[in-house]
């Protein structure tokens, strides 16, 4: 058997042999160590635990005396069949449950994509190419900013789709938005940050983990509150202007211009623009990326392929202003090259052959169809539901207006086995107790859309049961 990590505490008064005896005994009782399984030899275990062989011998002898283990001549010690012991109290080990792994009957989960229409055949083809002998160079360490071919494709794409002006030399490729933000905070190391409220929790968590000072700025109906920004002495603002997460608010052009003007007033001010799902816009005239309006090298543009292709692809990218990319290249202690080169190859081929654009066009229609059907059903109940933030992206805000409290709604949703997060889950400084929910529709199979939305409507519109006298 492999060595087990026994819990030995040398700072208590219980002898080590007795602690070892109790550890092995409990592992046997709880089926971690099973009938006829061989124990490590006294020599092996003493070396592994840095204790004497005499200590191991005492523990093994106690276990033998009580029938938990038995010895074979010239072979070692083995676990006994404890079912035959006269008294054995088995303690059930509680199951470790990850909240994210809980399965729901109906799920409006954020961050999920439509898996039915993932281009598996193409990625299978590109994977085969990537591991061909002709691509053996992909086994070497790549450029810390990402492979040049991929950076060229990203630069071409963001220019034509979002108006972002950059060269491949300004682009860095990372495994996630959080990793890119970590790199950015390493470069702008002495700055204080302003972040939106409500917000994607991982951004707040990263800043806290890295001990970066930050302040929450509330989001209004037109985007982040510019007047509040002007009142602070902070230097960097992190925003999601094209589809604010999670409210869905779109920052208007006037406010974008005001924000860029604020940033241009000092050389150490920066705007981090997270354009995480701008590909999916369903109505109205597209508003260009903030970066495309910037003439002062103040905007750091960040986006990801998590929504447009798949979250498991683990590819995000940032466009750094020229002064920051120079700083990035000079720093030797900044993490880079975190995306496997084979993945980069597959993605660059997917983009170069025009399949990425075709995939986006196809998925835009699919997500629009899902969204339209859900909205059509919800709008049949104007006295119960209000909707906002639905013009772009793969989620919107659903507000329950029929008098139910947030506690009532959550109780009913739980009873109906529905996975949907309240907006309050993403709020930090500004809080309210209104029944707002963030409804994600990207991961629902097309044929399941009807059942999902009917279940949600049913649980939030049905009358409370009243007891009869």
UniProtKB/TrEMBL annotation:
Its cofactor is pyridoxal 5'-phosphate. It holds the Pfam family GntR. Residues 14-82 form the HTH gntR-type domain. The keyword Ribonucleoprotein does not apply. CDD domains: AAT_like, WHTH_GntR. InterPro entries: Aminotransferase_I/II_large, HTH_trans_reg/aminotransferase, PyrdxlP-dep_Trfase, PyrdxlP-dep_Trfase_major, Tscrpt_reg_HTH_GntR, WH-like_DNA-bd_sf, WH_DNA-bd_sf. The keyword rRNA-binding does not apply. Keywords: Aminotransferase, DNA-binding, Pyridoxal phosphate, Transcription, Transcription regulation, Transferase. One of its GO terms (molecular function) is transaminase activity. It comes from the Bacteria. Gene3D superfamilies: Type I PLP-dependent aspartate aminotransferase-like (Major domain), Winged helix-like DNA-binding domain superfamily/Winged helix DNA-binding domain. In the C-terminal section; belongs to the class-I pyridoxal-phosphate-dependent aminotransferase family. This is PLP-dependent aminotransferase family protein. It comes from Mammaliicoccus vitulinus.
């Amino acid at each position: 058997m492999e060595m087990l990590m026994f819990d030995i505490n040398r700072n208590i008064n219980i002898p080590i042999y007795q602690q070892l005896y109790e550890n092995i005994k409990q592992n046997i009782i709880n089926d971690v160590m099973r009938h006829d399984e061989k124990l490590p030899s006294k020599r092996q275990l003493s070396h592994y635990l840095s204790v004497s062989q005499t200590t191991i011998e005492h523990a093994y002898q106690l276990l033998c005396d009580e029938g938990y283990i038995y010895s074979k001549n010239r072979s070692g010690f083995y676990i006994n069949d404890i079912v035959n012991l006269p008294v054995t109290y088995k303690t059930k080990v509680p199951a470790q449950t990850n909240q994210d792994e809980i399965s729901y009957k109906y799920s409006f989960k954020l961050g999920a994509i439509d898996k039915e229409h993932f281009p598996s055949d193409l990625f299978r083809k590109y994977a085969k190419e990537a591991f061909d002998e002709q691509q053996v160079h992909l086994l070497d360490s790549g450029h810390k900013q990402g492979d040049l071919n991929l950076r060229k494709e990203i630069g071409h794409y963001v220019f034509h789709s979002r108006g972002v002006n950059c060269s491949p030399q300004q682009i860095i490729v990372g495994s996630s938005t959080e990793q890119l933000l970590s790199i950015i905070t390493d470069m702008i190391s002495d700055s204080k940050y302003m972040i939106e409220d409500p917000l994607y929790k991982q951004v707040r968590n990263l800043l806290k983990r890295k001990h970066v000072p930050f302040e929450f700025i509330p989001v209004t109906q037109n985007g982040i509150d510019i007047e509040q920004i002007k009142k602070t002495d902070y230097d960097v603002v992190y925003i999601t202007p094209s589809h604010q997460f999670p409210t869905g608010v779109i920052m208007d052009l006037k406010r974008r211009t005001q924000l860029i003007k604020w940033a241009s007033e000092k050389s150490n001010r920066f705007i981090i623009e997270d354009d995480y799902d701008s590909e999916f816009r369903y109505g109205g005239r597209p508003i260009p990326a903030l970066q495309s309006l910037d003439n002062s090298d103040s905007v750091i543009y960040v986006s990801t392929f998590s929504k447009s292709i798949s979250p498991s692809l683990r590819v995000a990218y940032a466009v750094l202003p020229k002064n920051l990319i120079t700083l990035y290249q000079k720093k030797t202690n900044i993490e880079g090259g975190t995306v496997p080169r084979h993945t980069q190859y597959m993605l660059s081929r997917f983009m170069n052959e025009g399949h990425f654009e075709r995939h986006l066009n196809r998925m835009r229609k699919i997500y629009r169809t899902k969204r339209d059907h859900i909205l059509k059903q919800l709008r049949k109940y104007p006295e119960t539901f209000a909707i906002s933030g639905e013009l772009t992206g793969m989620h919107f805000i659903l507000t329950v207006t029929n008098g139910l409290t947030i506690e009532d709604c959550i109780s009913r949703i739980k009873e109906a086995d529905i996975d949907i997060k309240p907006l309050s889950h993403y709020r930090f400084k500004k809080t309210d107790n209104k029944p707002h929910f963030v409804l994600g529709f990207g991961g629902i199979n097309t044929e399941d859309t009807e059942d999902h939305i009917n279940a949600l409507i049913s649980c939030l519109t049905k009358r409370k049961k009243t007891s009869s006298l």
